[in-house]
Design goal:
Layout: H1 2-12, H2 23-38, H3 50-68, H4 75-87, H5 96-110, H6 115-125, H7 129-148, E1 159-160, E2 163-164, H8 165-175, H9 183-194
Antiparallel strand pairs: 1-2
Helix pairs in contact: 1-7, 2-3, 2-5, 3-6, 3-7, 5-6, 7-8, 7-9, 8-9
Length: 198
């Protein structure tokens, strides 16, 4: 996932690691979006949309991974650092809102990303590592697809056959084999097959 994130960020900006982008800020903003999907407004009827909550968790992971990179970063060392941080991880048992606030609070006060607090949020939202991986790769591929089809210049078509591209992605991922060595390529080809041709 670190490798895929590096490639995606480099596609958007070749020298992305030295730009000083505030990835932690994007992560806490995604936390706020997650809370909207879960529901926090006691003054009106709300139904938690766990699928959307989990999609926001995946979006947070994109920004969290990006936040861990520094100029000249070694992907293997970053992966080891993540594994080491999680070696002593124990779930706090917090609910979704409290776990989200803890991660957002860390992002705001430390201007960095906490893998263990993110893992706590994953546990609170019921997202397994396999689900995170499958959804992360799918969203990463969709982001590449968007860039390859005009996202940056505004020519990308986001709604196809009456559905947003994210909906198509969910349908593709439902039947995709994440254990396939060409999982990412298979997802990309499926997006191409559905996208309206020029």
């Amino acid at each position: 996932m670190l490798d895929l994130q590096n490639r995606m960020n480099a596609k958007v900006h070749p020298d992305w690691m030295s730009q000083g982008f505030a990835w932690y800020r994007a992560a806490w903003i995604e936390c706020a979006e997650l809370m909207d999907h879960f529901g926090y407004k006691w003054w009106k009827k709300q139904q938690a949309d766990i699928e959307q909550v989990q999609l926001e968790v995946v979006d947070i992971w994109h920004f969290g991974l990006s936040a861990m990179f520094t100029p000249g970063a070694d992907i293997e060392k970053l992966a080891d650092a993540i594994v080491n941080e999680l070696a002593s991880y124990q779930a706090s048992g917090k609910g979704v809102l409290a776990a989200t606030e803890a991660l957002a609070g860390h992002c705001l006060t430390e201007k960095s990303f906490s893998v263990s607090l993110f893992w706590d949020l994953m546990a609170a939202s019921g997202l397994s590592f396999d689900q995170l991986y499958k959804q992360y790769v799918g969203k990463n591929v969709l982001n590449f697809f968007r860039q390859d089809h005009g996202y940056k210049d505004g020519s990308y078509i986001k709604i196809w056959q009456g559905s947003e591209d994210n909906v198509h992605l969910v349908e593709i991922l439902a039947s995709a084999d994440m254990r396939s060595p060409q999982f990412a390529d298979d997802v990309y080809k499926s997006l191409v097959a559905r996208y309206p041709s020029a």
